[in-house]
Each structure stands twice: as structure tokens, then as C-alpha cells.
Amino acid sequence: MEPLSFVLSQLTFVLFGAPAAFHPSIRPMGWPARIAASFGLGAIVLTLEAMLFSLCGLRWGNRTLAIPLVLIAAIISWRLRKHPAEPRRPLRPNVLTGLLAGSLIAVTLLLFVHALVIGTATSVEFVLFEGTKAVRFAVAKGFDANFLRSPFSVHTHPGAPPLFPATLSWFALGREEPMWTWAPLSAAIWLMASIPLVLELLRRVLHDTVALTATAFWTVAMAAALTHAHSAGTADASWLFYGTVAFAALLTERGSGASTPLAAGALSGLALTKSGGVLFSLILVAVFATSTFIVSRKSLHPAFSRSVGRLAIVFTAPLFSAGLWGVFLIVNHLALRDPSAGSFSLWSSRWWEAVAGSETAALHAGTWGLAFIIPATVILLSVRHWNGWMLAGVIFVSAAMAIASITYMKEWTDPTDLIATTFPHLMQWPLSILIITAGFAQRRDHELFATDTSEKPARFQQS
Amino acid sequence: MKPDADGVAAAIWVMGAALLLSVFLLSEEQPDLRQWTPPETPVSRVDPEYAMQWKLLQQARPFIPIGASFTVRSLTGDSETSLLMLSQGILLRRDPLPWSYFGAPKGEGARAEFVIAQNPRISHQSDLKEIARLPAGRIYRRLK
Description:
The structure holds 2 protein chains of 2 kinds. Helix content of chain A is 70%, strand content 0%. Chain A is built from 22 helices and no strands. Chain A has helices spanning 2-11, 13-16, 18-22, 31-55, 62-80, 95-118, 124-140, 145-149, 163-172, 176-182, 186-203, 208-228, 236-253, 260-273, 277-299, 304-331, 352-362, 370-381, 388-409, 416-426, 428-441, 446-451. The N and C termini of chain A lie far apart (47 Å). In chain B, strands 2-1-5-7-6 form a 5-stranded mixed sheet. Chain B has a two-stranded antiparallel ribbon with strand order 3-4. In chain B, helix 2 (48-60) crosses helix 3.
């Protein structure tokens, strides 16, 4: 019953984040997506509460952490359900194609869960620091500042945002040993939570059948990439969840503001998951501001400043989350900068061959690179329909690759091994964005998308 | 786009997904789907060296009392560092003191109450008493 116990412990996040399911902007989605949004929000609020407990010197316990969150969630959900929301549009894909896509998703998830259970997708980072932090926090009943401050804990990346180990600690409170066996299953939970949200967000702009098949492609590609990179037991899957939801929400709303709460929440989760969360949130927001500018200028639409204002609001969420963790670090005399981060040389072109060769090889992603090639081809073939929104995905993927390449080029020593071990992890989110951008490229009403930055929510009738 | 563009788009995605799944099944060493037993250690099926160290530390746990300090010894700085890292997650409520960390010798390990030696040849010290022989190493207790 231990695996079931672990899965149920993670699913309690749905209760903590219940208000997401009742928010007017999310209520028009299907129940799987509403539950998935609640799960993502639940992990965020649990982590923020755990930080407040540790800052106030309160010890964690399953009940002491859960009771306030459930009460607050119940009150907010009750109030939110009174707000009017658009009616849900039933999912009506072509039956045969839908069954085929559903079967592909089911088989992929079976293979992925199998790899997680038998431990062939587990990262050594899990036993070296992610899992270690989780059990140390569980034993200390708080973010163990003494452990993080130790000069012999540098390898655990003490300043890294704590969402992933905190979610594992939630299970490990009093149950450290089973955590080591079952925690890799969390990758499947995060991946499964992403699927209905990807589907619902793509449905905003695509026919149901196209959205479902694109979601099936996304699922197979991401499961293969996570397995191939040995991401189980690391924060990769949660990073992918938040990053994908944030991007897809901003892309498919096209500046209407309908997704501001969802995108803000997702970027908040991103900032709590890995050290680059705030930087990548800023890049994402900047990319969408640029896209809005391109679209607004083309149509002489006055919505640019309004859209940028909303993007600024979106960016306050990750700043707040990262800021609270920063306060914890400062109060406990912990370094804000990761002490294990290496020092870099100045820009050097001596590694360009190694970088180009190793990065290309690392784009395998468990599918001989086809997971990248197919959506990239779709985007290139849709070039006549490109607009500012389309460019957001292309620019972001290019920026992510450029940042990684520049970082590798500044290494003191040959980065070949470093690229082989890190690049497959770094490219998971850009791969996800590439697939969603390719899906967006197949939208039907290109003229409307070229100009629409109004307040009007995006709703498209099925033909 | 033509009226049947959605059908073409759906076909591209579904065939692409089927192709990815086929390639994924072929390119990875797919384990037997009838086998659903979790590994002996979290990394047994991805890193045999770490798995061996993990087992040594698990077997050593009953010999290191709660609250006691311990250090880890091995033949190389790398394996000594990984043993220390793993011990921080396995030997909870005990005090890990490094003999070395990222290859640099550390003095803290010399005052540890217990020594877990992955290779027994390295711990011939007169103030250590062997208290356990394990398949992958030995446990010593420091004499007062």
C-alpha cells in the first residue's frame, strides 16, 4: 500500500489548491484540468506555508500544515464559485482519432510509470541531494537551516528553491524509508497533471481533434524525454508542468488577459522549483511583451500598454514566491547564490565545436531527435501564418538554447560531459514550448489572431 | 487553410505520436513489462557503484547509534565524497563528518565515533576497533 499512500499524499495538494478549480478563468475547463490546476496551486501554497512555518520557528506536521490550508481553500473556493464563468464547452473530438490519441497517451503513461517503478528513469541527483533534502527536512520538521548551512552540504544546492523536496517531505514526515522507493512516481503525477491543462489550453485555439492529437504527441515526447534524461526523483517534471502551463496560457490568450491568474500561478511555481525560475519568468514575460508589441503595432491596436500591464502583474507572482524564499535564506544566513555554482571564464570560442556537437547529440530526447524535428517542421511549413504570437515560442526556444550554449562556452574545461548530463534536462521545457507553438501554428483563424488583443475571451465555435 | 486542414493537422500529430512511441520503444533498452518489482536501492538500475555504496550504508545503519558521529572512508576522494553525500540521506539523526570532501582532506572525520570503510585496507588505525564485517565494507568504533 506504500505506493498508493505516496500517490494519495501528493493528491492532497488538490485540496490545498482547490480555489484554482473554482476560479472563473479555469471553471470553463473540464474537471481533469481543474483538478490539475488545483494540484499545481496546492504544491505552491504548501511550499509557501512550509516557508512561513520555518521562518516563524513552527514545526511541520501533516495536520498542522494541512488544516489551515484546507480551511482557507474551502472559504476561497466557496466565494469564487459564486462568480459567473463561461459555460464549459464539451470535448467533442472525432471518435476514431480521439480513441487513437487516447490509446497513445495511455500506453505512454503505462510505460512511463513502469520505468519509474522499476527505477530505470531515476536520477542520481535524487539520492545525492533532492531526496536527501526531502528526508532531512522531514526529520527536522522544517527547512533544516543547520543542514543547509553546513560546509559539507554545498552539493545539495542549499539556496535552490524548495518546492520539489518540500512536496516529498510532505510524504516523508515520519516515513523516511518508503520515500526513497516511491518518490520517483512523482514524475508521473506531474506529467499526468500537465496533460489535461495542455489539452484545454490548446482547445482554445484548435479544433478538439487537433488539440487532442497534439496533446498525445506532447505526452509521448515529454515522457520519452523525461525517461531518457533520467529525470525521476528530480524537479524536472514539476518544472515542466509550471513552465508549460505558463507558456501555453499566455500564448493561447493572445493578450486578452483571460489567463493572467493561471500564468501568474504557474510562474510562481516555476520560481519555487529551480534556481533559474525568476530569470526564465522574466524572459517569458519579456518575450510575450515583445510579441504583444509586434501584434499591436501591426494592427494599430491601443491594447499594448494594457497587455504589458497585465504581464507585469503576472511577473509579480514569481517575484513574491522567490522573495519569500530569499527572506528565509537571508534570515538563516544562507547564501542567495548557489555556492556550488562554478566560476566561468570569459567568453571563449574554443569550445564551439564541442558545444555544437554535444548539444546536437543531446537533442536525442529518447526519440532520435524526432520530438524536436516534427514540431520544428510544422512551424517552418506554417511560416506564412507567423505573427507576433507565433514568434514568442520561436524566440523563447532560441533564447533558451543560446543561454545554455553561452554558459557552456564559458566553461574552463571541455564541456562535453557536462552537456551530455545537463542539456537533456535543460531542453525539456523548450521542447514542450516547441510542440505547443507548432500546435498554435495550426490554428484556423489566422486573421483574428494577427490582431486580437481585446478583452474578449478566446472562444471559437466548432465547425 | 483548406476545409479539411484540421484533419490533416490531426493526422500529422497522431502519426507523429505513434512514430515517437515506436522509436522510443526501439531506442531504449525496454525492460520486461511483466516485471514491476522496485529496485533494491533507488539507483540499482542506473548506477551500480552508488547502489553498492547505498547498500553498505543501509547495512551499517544498525551499528551506528542515533546521535553518534561517523565518517566514511574509501579508496578515492570521489567515492568518499559520494559515500558522504549518500550517508546524509540514509543515516538520519546521526552526525556525518567528512574524511574528505570533493577530494580535499578534512580534519573533522578524524574525531568521528564510528568509521564506515568501503575498503577495509584503509582503516588500519590503532584507535579503531572493528565491530562489523559487511559484504561491501567494515564498521569500526573509535576507542576512547
